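Changelog-linked ticket: FNR example.
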Amino acid sequence: MEITNIMEYEAIAKQKLPKMAFDYYASGAEDQWTLAENRNAFSRILFRPRILIDVSKIDMATTVLGFKISMPIMIAPTAMQKMAHPEGEYATARAASAAGTIMTLSSWATSSVEEVASTGPGIRFFQLYVYKDRNVVAQLVRRAERAGFKAIALTVDTPRLGRREADIKNRFNLPPFLTLKNFEGLDLGKMDKADDSGLASYVAGQIDRTLSWKDVEWLQTITKLPILVKGVLTAEDARLSIQSGAAGIIVSNHGARQLDYSPSTIMALEEVVKAAQGRVPVFLDGGVRRGTDVFKALALGASGIFIGRPVVFALASEGEAGVRKILQILREEFELAMALSGCRSLKEITRAHIVTDWDLPRNRLAPRL
Ligand code: FNR
């Protein structure tokens, strides 16, 4: 069957993967309200397309933290990609590099920072979970730096793991043939068997719940790499991120896997963008599945977006070719959305090209602007 949109890989992945792996990739927290809302909210934003503009040439290139990429579509960190495909993170790294865009490698990858670096050139960010043992963190950040990673995405929404009921039912654990490669030498590469989700127990045992704003400053004492704060949903935390020295903000609810009934990221975005006042770039992840979604995020002030689940589903279905394919499809859809709304470059995409349901005064669940 020919794939015509990136969502179609989910059904193929479901057929191919063991239930425990598919459920881990697909699910969200508790009622999964936010999971559905991350998608639904995009459908409450409509276009105000402009016509009769020469759109024979469309330029989607941009720079992120000074790095030139071919399009504002990047890859979010998703853990344990070798559960999806034997080549896992290698395949993702190669596909991102071929598409001229950025891959973010998860702390909990099943390939190490050095292994991913050895796949060849490419602009890569490293996602960091802060362990209780700060020596572990310092070592890992140093290794990421040496392996040529260009920024740290510090995940701040996970002092504890959200309740993902499928993982609890499945007693989720890493398959025995895989390890969290970055931690292998530190004896932290495996999760113990647990009576609920093995990952939730691992987080409870290893991840530092005391993490606070002063640690964002501490991180800057151990690395020169720019820090993106990943998991901001409010104006207040956008301001604190900037005060703490963040080089950028990622509006994220962790793919709806942490606090259920958090707002969709596309609804939280504008509040954060306004608070940032252009001092640092603001990015978004969560529910981006169409080129029109990318356009909407940029119209609301995002400098770029990241995709999570589509990558693991494409990997499970077709490996590197699948990841290349979703990046290509999103690119083409985004280019078409630009053309059909009369925008030739990213800077021509404005707030006036869309209308949202919170632009209408009768809507009481509007984000605070
Ligand atoms: C994630 N996400 C995530 N985030 C992070 O900071 N570190 C991680 O290791 C992971 N791992 C992970 C695994 C899986 C299977 C998923 C689905 C998500 C969250 C991820 O970076 C991103 O925020 C969301 O996936 C974006 O939403 P979509 O595109 O999946 O809707």
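Closing comment: Example verified and attached. The mean pLDDT is 96. The longest strand covers residues 227-232.
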